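FAQ
Q: What does a multi-component entry look like?
A: The components come first, one per line:
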Amino acid sequence: MAGALSPEEVAHVAHLARLELTGDEVDHFAVQLSAVLEHVESLRRLDIATVPPTSHALELVNVLREDVVRPGLDREEVLAGAPSAEAGRFRVPPILGEAP
Amino acid sequence: MSAAPAAGDALAATVIAGSSGEWEVVVGLEVHCELSTATKLFCGCPNLFGAEPNTHVCPVCLGLPGSLPVLNEGAVERAMRIGAALSCTVRPSTFHRKNYFYPDMPKDYQVTQYDEPINVGGHVELVDGTIVGIVRAHLEEDTGKTTHLGGRGRIHEADYSLVDYNRAGVPLVEIVSAPDIRSAEQARAYVGELRAILVATGASDGRMEEGSLRVDANVSVRRAGSAELGTRCEVKNLNSLRSLGRAIDFEAARQVELVESGGTVVQETRHWDEELGSTSSMRSKEEAFDYRYFQEPDLVPLVPSEEWVSAVAASIGLLPAARRHRLAEAVATDRVPAPIDQVATAVDLGLDELVVAAIGLGADRRLALARAANEAAQRPEDARALDPAAFAGLVGLEASGKLSATQAKTVLAELLAGGGDPAEIAGRLGFKALDDDAVDTLVAEVIAAHPDEWQRYVGGDDKVLQFLLGLVMRETKGRANGKVVAAAFAARRG
Amino acid sequence: MSAADGNSPALALSARVRTGELSARRAAEEALQAIAASDPLLHCFNAVMADAALAAADAVDRRVAAGEDPGPLAGVPVALKDNLCTRGVPTTCSSRILEGWRPPYDATVVSRIAAAGGIAVGKTNLDEFAMGSSTENSAFGPTRNPWDLDRVPGGSSGGSAAAVAAGLVPLALGSDTGGSIRQPAALCGVVGVKPTYGLVSRYGLVAFASSLDQIGPFATNVGDAALLLEAIAGHDPADSTSIPLDPPRLVASLDHGVEGLRVGVIADFLTDASPSCADAVRRAAEALESAGASIGEVAIPELLHGLSAYYLIAPAEASSNLARYDGVRYGLRVDGPDVEAMNARTRAAGFGAEVKRRIMLGTYVLSAGYYEAYYGQAQRVRTVIVRAFATAYERFDVLLAPTSPSVAFHLGDKTGDPLQMYLSDLFTIPSNLAGHPAMSVPFALGEEAMPVGVQVLAPALAEETMFRTAAVLEAAADERARGPVRPAAPSGARG
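Then the predicted structure of the entire assembly, as tokens:
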């Protein structure tokens, strides 16, 4: 069925999006997301390959600012909402992999 | 920009002798350089190294909810300078989001340039004349820094990590070379040349050990003579030129051995371990990252005007390669080319203007270059401020035989330290090269003491002259001018 | 009928404060009392800023006493949707993942309201991260429609719409990504405006879909909405997508009428609207004709594809905008053995079901292999819609349409089927995709005596034309259809 999303695909997408889901949730979302994708099928079949995409409603270009220092935040403010901090830095559990 | 000359100098390529034949290594380099702007790419936080953690941050570079980026004009200017210096085409460009999760990324996406980068095409000319193609050079924001605690500070053994966002949002230009590099030495030379260009254009201070210049290497191997490219691996964590060279050699050897023993090279990212001297795979299980690029909706396209592009191109001045050419041409004669090492040193230290100017004032070409690259190079800052006329005068004193080499070097040191007139300094120090009669007497003595060598010289063996000359120079304790002594021997030979 | 007469409570109030006839403090106290009395029933507010409001009011009174002009919003209580950053005041987006988070900075619109003398009195409830059409997706419980407490106020800016509709405050700010100001305005019998994209700074608005989001005003009447929009609009260097223009002058030209204006009714939308909603549009068109406009019908079938395009583009951008909620720097953290697990558990616990749905949908349509077919295609449909509007605007100056397909529905009616809920945005979405302004004006009573709003659409930067059209509609509207109303039990009794 066009537009259908399998539970495996949902699990993969959930992993990409860092959302931990239960098995039931995966199945449940698969059904709901498939319904949405099916609804948008009509859009996919439109013959508009030559129409350029619109990324912006505006036609602005070249918005720049001067390379001049402006006041930032105090470290206290920065760390105020931190779930965990140490030595002026944000603390996180072990990072398993290197950055891409 | 001119059409890129042919790339890749086969003579300098590394050939690996495998058990089944010869292999060559193919390398492309991705160099990230931090731009020397006052502020970050999208906000007004200071772009400064070494501050207390999380003291140079604001809602924008922290990616706080509701924050928005605004592009730094100074970063764009420097990116354009880099493009011009690399002979790239500077073009309209857009920004994209590269989406992935990592704690050093405040927004869990990086704003970068994807299919419409600001600079495309271009090339770099290495000291030995090799041309390396540049595919693109684009703008992007840097990430924060993580420190890993527990274990030996290495990520795989850590108990937890700490994140500092001072560096998050610092402007970077990523320069991607074509796979035109054929050896570890060329790779090092490429990075060295790139660094010189970046410093010369004022776009970056290019310090690899400080992290303002970061290099990743894409390495593959292929049978010698093949035109196809093998599967490449990306090697990361190269913190010095030495690491770069070692890693390339290791990785090439690893790949050759793998293929020759029946395996295939897997396209992956590998981590260089400086202590172990080896690369290891970073992504054990799956997946090429799916970055889900899409155009950044919070920024608008960048369309630099032709006036701006031209103005930037005109402002960058002569690049190192052009300066080397200019100096080499000034020094070379019809018969004898300029010595490459001295030329490169002089340009690298910014002494080429001095030499060219002195030559213009009549100074002996090779001597001017030698004194600049060998002696004046000891104090490059003073040398750059040296008056070309004084320098030309000194070179003239030595070239005409009025000062010996040793004496001339002493006078030069004085000139660098305190300026002045070379002839006056020489007089004050009581320097005067031995006069011709004194030289002649010593020459006669040496000839008498070494008849065999003299006979060989008379018979046409020019090489023995160095030996005879050395004896005279030792006797005079450097007060004789080498050229004058050589001329005396030659005259006696007839 | 002009904005300066008693039908513009905010305008009138600020005038009285500036002359010293009414103290800002008194106005603030009255608003706070009204909130205290009614909000337990309505749940418009996530947070009430009592101390800050009184302090701000006192400051306004001091300026008046010193002979200074405190600004056009002097002393007027304003409610702020809880996805607008307010320094030191919790900004939750009605989500557990930001519960208790206090921003260290103010949104630009918040600063501008304060600079104009306005008094921020509290943060209003919304669908979580602005995703929804009923405010039932709030993690802190729904807001109720003051016209009928068993019905939804619409969404996602339900709290702001209801606060104005219940007379708790004369002005409120909301945000509109696919209709989240206009639809609740229609369901609550108040005026709601989505400005041209880029007219109002988004700096400090917690992003949902960056290329679609706009901040806009709620008021009981057109004049007050114009007053608030003037105060917040205009170029902001902190927002790269902010149009480099001064704020438009709207209040002054409100009563210039619609003589000679060409008005087009979007025929395609009438068939998908309830009888009363479609009928309201027809009668609105007649009213404009009586006032000197020329009326016609226009078919723009391309607009019907807007819903699908929106439900690809908005979730895609949202999936990226919401990635930052990872438990590292602020907000909720649920611990895990490693960062990846911590991220995943935090987001699972912190986000509601609708937010998760949209994040996953967005992640999917951007992922390798699907980008062109879904996201790329949606961006092309966006161009088609922009062009279709441009063609329509060759023949007409403004367009008329229903705002919502129906009057306010009952709580729980549509929560079982996400798609059913999405259909609420059918008529509002195209303006977001095109970046055009649009506003809802309460016009008539519809099914079950619930209010019906009529939508006025205009081309980019044509706010002035749009507002004067709205002013004429307002004058012709059924007065019973507009707030404020005393919060009513299901019998529909009106105060």
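Q: Is there any commentary attached?
A: Sometimes. For this entry: Chain A touches chain B through 37 residues (CB under 8 Å).
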